[in-house]
Amino acid sequence: MNLFQTPFFLPWLYPQLVWRMPTHEKKVYLTFDDGPVPGPTEFVLETLKQYNAIATFFCIGDNVQKHPEVFTEIIKAGHEVGNHTFNHLKGWNTPLQTYIDNIKKCEATINTHPNLTDYHLPTTGHQLFRPPYGRITRSQINVLKEKYKIIMWDVLTQDYRKNITPDNCIRGTIQATRPGSVVVFHDSYKAEPNLIFTLPRYLEYLNAEGYTFGRL
Question: Which sequence positions are flagged as catalytic?
Fold first, then answer.
């Protein structure tokens, strides 16, 4: 089993979710989960800027509330923003209404951010949601799909895992990447050691191979 690549049967079981973007171009879709937090998120923003790369940040509402200045930097840089619940809830363990209410709380926190009056919140015309841990029930999907584009992934960098070395992290991520890949990193303290090593090397690889960066 490839730890870095989504099992082939999941997109077949859940076709209403976005696992990979349909394209014949050499284009990837970078995503960052669990921020914004001082340090890791700022490192990501600076690294993306160096490589002229665009990304989507799936933000935890509680972190947006705690670190509004870091969230502002994401917006100023022109990146997309998605909803990752307010409290990083596991969908499988959370009652439907509790889960939906937590997502709404995150949405309200993002939309009432004080600096949104100064900087336009980037959007592609729809709202983006990613379930924490990738765990979501069919009943949750049925409610959310009316309003949100639910984004999963086909490449998971495993940057948050303590037993994955930085060398394995970059190697596995590169091997799993293909045109249209939706790639998950984490701008979190837990992932920081692998993130700092892997992200610039991955962007260097993508540039050398002629990849461009897309919006979801």
Answer: 33, 186
